[in-house]
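Tokens in:
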């Protein structure tokens, strides 16, 4: 598949919620199929109030194509200190998802590039995420 050239990556906005939740539902369906021992069917995945709390902290990044959100990345800041650990400020990717119709087109790379710029601009010490072992690389 070819990449999508006309992608606007920006901070999320309130009006993006319905598209974001739709993409989160797509991913949740994969998770419940892969690991029903861990994940369950719930609606919504991301409540509007939770979404708004992430927006308030500028922690939602969206990829926008042709008038709709086609990908998202939600991050949180983890401040780590104490014990044997030095004090660190870590950008932790909480959620990252791309609409199934747009996967394999470079959207995820663009979302991560935007997050990496936040990492640099805001002086983070680490950039972390967890990846589901069942995730598949889609060949472009």
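Residues out:
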């Amino acid at each position: 598949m070819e990449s999508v050239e006309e992608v606007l990556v920006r901070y999320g906005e309130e009006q993006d919620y319905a598209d974001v939740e739709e993409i989160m539902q797509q991913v949740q369906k994969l998770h419940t199929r892969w690991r029903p021992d861990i994940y369950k069917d719930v609606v919504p995945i991301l409540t509007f109030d939770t979404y708004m709390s992430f927006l308030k902290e500028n922690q939602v990044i969206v990829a926008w194509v042709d008038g709709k959100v086609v990908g998202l990345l939600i991050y949180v800041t983890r401040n780590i200190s104490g014990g044997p650990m030095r004090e660190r400020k870590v950008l932790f990717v909480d959620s990252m998802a791309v609409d199934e119709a747009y996967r394999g087109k470079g959207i995820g790379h663009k979302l991560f590039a935007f997050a990496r710029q936040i990492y640099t601009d805001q002086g983070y010490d680490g950039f972390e995420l967890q990846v589901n072992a069942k995730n598949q690389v889609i060949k472009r």
